[in-house]
Amino acid sequence: MSATDPSFLSAAAKLLGPRGFTTDPELMAPWLTDWRGRYTGQACALASPADTREVAALVALCARHGVAIVPQGGNSGMSGGATPDNSGEALLLSLRRLNTIGEVDAGARQITCGAGVVLQNLHEAAGNAGLRFPLTLGGKGSATVGGLIATNAGGSQVLRHGLMRTQVLGLEAVLSDGTIWSALTPLKKDNRGFDLKQLFIGSEGTLGITTAATLKLEPAVAQRIVVWAGLASITHARELLLLAESTAGDALEGFEVLPKNCLDAVLTNVPTARPPLADPHAWHALIELVSSDPAADLQGRAEHMLAEALAVGVIEDAALAASEAQAEAFWSLRESISGALRAKGAAVQHDISVPVAQMADFVTFAIAEVEQKWPGCRAFAFGHLGDGNVHFHVTAPPGAVRGTWEAGPGKAVSAMVHDLVTGWHGSISAEHGIGQMKRDELARLGDPVALGLMERVKAALDPAGLLNPGKLLAPRGGNA
Length: 480
What we know:
CATH class of the largest domain: Alpha Beta
CATH topology of the largest domain: Alpha-Beta Plaits
CATH architecture of the largest domain: 2-Layer Sandwich
C-alpha cells in the first residue's frame, strides 16, 4: 500500500474531518516550501490533528499503510527539516492545532503546553503570571514549541539558560506505531533508567512526534542593562567576556560579537539604523545584564565592568542604553545582520560552534583561510561568543549569480568551512539542526561510532523508517 491508496486517504479524511485533512494543492502549497525558499517538496495530503489522540490514531494508520510522515511546526526551520521530498508519497503532519497552553504553575515555575504553541504566545502566557520563558528567537512569532524541541533550538540567552533541552522538564510523544509515551510530570529525582525525553529533543521528528511538553520558567526580569562596546579585535572580545563573567556574575545573560563589516552592512541596508558609537571599531560586543531583583545595582555592575575594561585596554569605547527603546535598537542591529548580508547577493551561511575558549582564534584563522582559498569571497563571523556559536557567512565574488553560485562553488566553500570546524573539534550545527541541508555533511564528517549509535536508536524506534525520512541521518533503504 502507499499514500496514494484511496483507502488510506479516505480513512485519514474520516479520522480528522475537513478541518484536519486536505489534499487541496492550494491549501498545501504554503507549507511545502521552507521559509528560506531553499527546499520545496510534495505531499499526498496535509493533516492537522486537533489533539494527541488524533495524532496517535493518524500515526497508527500511517504505520498500517506504510506511509511516511513529515512533522511540521511553524515551518520556520533553518535546515529544511520540515519539508518533504519530491516523491509526493509522504504525509505532511502539521502540529499547529495542538496549541493549548495550560495553567502556569507559579510555585513550581513550570507550564505544560501543546507542541503547536507559538513561542511568542508562550512568552505572553508566562509574562501574565509574572514569569518568563528564557528562550527567544527572531522568529518567535512563528516558531512553535514542538519545532524548538525537535531542533534543540538556541538563541541569545543560551549563555545563562542553556539550549532548549535544558528548558524541557517533561515530554509527551507519539511513537512510530501510534503508541503514546507520556512523561509530562517532572520529578526532581527519578532514577528509573534512561532519561527518555532527551532522545526526542534534537531528533528532528525522526524518532517520535512531540505533542506536548512541560517547560521550565524563570522569574520575570525586573531590570536590564544593555551595553554596546567597541573593541580592537575579537581576542579583546574574549577578554571582555571573561571580565564580564567575573564582574557581572549570574546577571550576565547575553554576549554577542560582530565585526565592523557586519555593522556596516546593517547600517547600509537598514535606513533607520544608527551606529551606537561615534567612532568606527574593528569589532563590537553587545552585552545584556538582567536581574529579577528590582533593588539589584545592575547599573553599578555594568559601570564597574566597563571601567575595568577601559583601564586595562580591553575596550576602546562603550555606551549603555539609556532607555528600553535604545536597548531594543542595539539588539535590532544584531538581529538585522543576516538580512543585511543576504542583501549583498549570493552567499552560503553556516551555523557552527567550537570550544568557547578557542572561538576568537578560530574566527581569525577561518576568515583568513576562506578568503585566501576563494579570492573575491568575503567571510563574516558574528554570534554568541559566550557559548562558542558563530554564524559564519561567506558572500560570493562580485557578479556571482544567486542560486547558481550556492549550488556550485558555494558547496565547496561550505565543505571547507565544515572541514575547518571539525578540525577544531567543533560542530557543523550549533543551534539550527541538521535537517536535509547538512545530512550528507554529517555523514561525511561525523564520528562513525556516534553515527552508528544514532542509526541503531532510529532502527529501534522507527523500524520501518516512516518518521521524517531523509532528515538528520542518511537513508538506510526502504522509506527512510
